[in-house]
Predict the 3D structure of the following.
Amino acid sequence: MHEHDDDLERTLTANLREMAAIDAMASGASPEVRTRLLEHVRAAARGRRRSVMKAYALAAGLAIATSIPVWQLSTRTAIDVPAQVPLASTEVASGFYPLRYSAVPVTQGSVVRLELSPTDLAVLGVAPPGSRRDIVMADVLVGEDGLARAVRFVRTVSRDK
Amino acid sequence: MDDAALLTRASAGDEAAFSRLFARYQRQIYLYAERVCGCGSGDDIVQETFLAVLRPSGRFDPGKGTVPAYLFGIARHHMIKRLARQGATLSEPAEVVAADAISPQETPIDTIARERTIDVVRQAVRSLPPAYREVVALCDLQEMDYAMVAHVIQCPIGTVRSRLHRARALLLRKLTCTSTTTILNAR
């Protein structure tokens, strides 16, 4: 009986193998499936190329958009102070640092001496030389429109040595 | 070029790589679908499987298995959906229905042509519950190893073995009930 079962198992296996061999001669999916899929591949490739072009265009746009302010910032150091602002003999000053509105054209301006707290300086968007935390003296160049264009820091020094 | 490299390039829109991958696996997936879901399902399943390769969401992870297992897994996912529409499932039935005989084709069986015999076997395979049909298709007909079948159908190897054992037992019962001089004894 057991032997008979084994025979049946073997015969079944042989039948299944034969069936698999017959099926193996089948070509598989119809050619239309391959054609349709290849159209999808081409469409996907075109879509990817478009995405890459868009990414390049976006990157170029960003580069231009950021390079303009960077260029403006870099040129801010060349700000022209209308006149030499005199200093007392006991004072030393830094150069004029450009502020946010330094690019706005100015025809007439005046220099205003101010005492600025670190908070004021932060509002102006500058840090004092040496990162000092106390009140600093500063000359602010203000245009005729009231907008601050530049600032310099002033320090009093003792001459008696 | 190995399967993983082909798949990566195919997913990136490389037409030549896609064609090679398609040529390598379409027939196996086609037969798997036809055997489990029935005639007419092969084209759709092959198409859905290879379309999934092109979708950005369907990324292959080599750490999780082989490319054929990945492709068969996608195919199976679509087959489950297809079977669900027919009210069938790929889950193993809780109780195996008593063997219903395949309608006798011809008697005496000795005269049945070889093709006829295979047709009866094919019919018997098709009459199995989908979960059993699937393991017979993958293990016996596609000669996939148990580990890969376990990966494709997402169950332990032991379950694959036991399911295949039950499937073959049911298949034998169906075939031996077919005729007094059975298909199996005819060989």
Summary: The first helix of chain A runs from residue 2 to 24. Strands of chain A lie at 91-93, 97-98, 109-116, 136-143, 148-156.
